[in-house]
Write a structure and sequence with these properties.
2 strands; two-stranded antiparallel ribbon; homodimer; Farnesyl Diphosphate Synthase; mainly alpha
């Protein structure tokens, strides 16, 4: 299973549907341009792919879930636009962020407008399939609860920035909200649209949550070790930016004083030298923080794959297994 | 019909339901406090009241629409929080705005979180009533299309701030999105939940749109003429702030040069003297701009009331007629 090729095929399938929900002719033009900006800049379309593949894995067709798959990408991009404002990030997907180009007010509205479309797209899907009321309500509940959980995760993230004593458990709860909630929603809605049994819905939900969290941990690893050519950011960028990821949380609680000092010399210092960054990375490896996070992510992926045992063998199931591995093997 | 008393009764009915959707024990505490802040600060609960009354006017019970009525208030407060950020407003309902107290990031998230709850509350309502798929989908479409239209209106509002040549038609389109879309949604969902005929759904939708737009025009009038004791802002505050309302649009296109100069001496000048403001208001009256807007709002209210002819006589219908009048008679 060539996962990258599979993701590309899914992306090609969902792309026209994403476009359909943000038609270029809608007025005012600036609103639509701001809504489309990050979507057009790229992205792997991982969440729509999860939705369509989950639907297929329970016996449905990819096309059965296509409006909601598109909705997941609108949803994801809504969170990115608002996140970038809050984090004062200036670049994403190699382009300037929405608020940098159009200002914060337009960026806030563009995010809200994408969020508005999420529910309209999901409603269209339920209507087309003639879903029953119970499933339709569950579809909407899944989307709206995920967005609330995402908000909770974002607030935790902000609160943690001001604290030095964040625990591993707290960090895990935060990324579960910030990243896991939406990937769980992606697979869950796919299962709902494929008219899956409760057991399969539950299994695919757990799978989605686990790979989402593992995805974030891999992101944390790449933020420290990822190579510029592939990951798009210089090595150790998260150290310079002072991002309090699990690697740092772990290192700060387990490193001896001398190592801790080396780490803190580079951590959060935008003017840290390459040599200081190199030494800090060495510390993160030496005290076992890197391996700890990598191992934890791998275990989550293994657990996610185990959840899929309730599914019959199929190409879609194979794809879900492949995506789970990809999440922790990717270098970008 | 004592409209104020009626609104208070509706508000008392919906209040526990609004509270139920933002439980105090949800974590992180700061998120819930930010979500609840403006809701607790007051407001007439006009939109929930419209929803419940519309439901009753088509033969349902107020309680049939209570979750969605609460959702409308969450929705309204979501737009207020994001609006206040964009307009840099520091006070609303006599309290500091959310972003002033907690900062912009928390305010953005608090708005998003309220928006998330809108759809969960509406889903709960559809589920409780056992609505059919078609109506359920229409319920969600109404809410999500209204929010998209609201975004369009907000962007227009921002674009107009930079322009001197906004036409009456453009202004009307803007407030139709910014205010009319949500009041239309309020009455429309009430009619849907009351299982109304297409004719009645359409009539109540038009009624909602018309009184929303009239409400905004009355707000514009109060922004110029409203007395501090009642309206809560000093006389002529919109002139000092340079708000480009229909009154100004009209005055700038119809006033002779001399009057225009008097007006522009105070318009958008935060340090304008009370005497300059008084003279500017005199101009707005003299050139007929005040009466033009008041008359236009009254005509819209008359048209809104006409739409209700398709409804049988009832206490609820009487209330809707009373609310329509209240919209243009209120002094606060």
């Amino acid at each position: 299973m060539d996962v990258l090729k599979y993701l590309e095929e899914c992306a090609a399938l969902v792309e026209p549907e994403i476009n359909r929900w943000i038609p270029r002719e809608v007025q005012p033009e600036v609103l639509v341009r701001a809504m489309r900006h990050l979507i057009e800049a790229g992205g792997k379309r991982l969440r729509p792919c999860l939705t369509m593949t989950a639907c297929e894995a329970v016996g449905g067709k990819k096309e059965d879930a296509i409006e909601t798959a598109a909705a997941l990408e609108l949803f994801h991009n809504f969170t990115l636009i608002h996140d970038d404002i809050m984090d004062h990030d200036e670049f994403r997907r190699n382009v300037k962020t929405v608020h940098v180009i159009w200002g914060e007010p337009i960026a806030i509205i563009a995010g809200d407008a994408l969020f508005a479309k999420v529910f309209e797209a999901a409603a269209a899907n339920a209507s087309r399939l003639g879903m029953n009321l119970e499933r339709t309500v569950e579809l909407f509940n899944t989307l709206s609860r995920a967005s609330f959980e995402l908000c909770q995760g974002q607030v935790l993230d902000m609160l943690f920035e001001k604290r030095d004593d964040v625990t591993e458990e707290e960090y895990m709860r935060m990324i579960s909200g910030k990243t896991g909630a939406l990937t769980e929603a992606a697979t869950r809605v796919g299962a709902l649209l494929g008219n899956a049994s409760r057991e399969k819905i539950q299994a695919l939900s757990s799978y989605g949550r686990l790979i989402g969290v593992a995805f974030q941990m891999q992101d944390d690893l790449l933020g420290v070790l990822g190579k510029q050519e592939k990951f798009g950011k210089p090595i150790g960028s998260d150290i310079r930016e002072g991002k309090r990821t699990l690697i740092i949380v772990k290192a700060l609680t387990s490193a001896p004083e001398r190592e801790k000092r080396i780490l803190l010399k580079a951590f959060g210092k935008s003017n840290a030298t390459n040599e200081e960054i190199r030494k800090a990375i060495e510390v993160l490896k030496k005290v076992g923080a890197v391996e700890y996070v990598a191992e934890k992510a791998r275990k989550m992926v293994a657990k996610a794959k185990m959840k899929l045992k309730v599914l019959p063998d199929s190409k879609a199931k194979e794809a879900l297994l492949g995506i789970a591995d990809f999440v922790v093997e990717r270098e970008f």
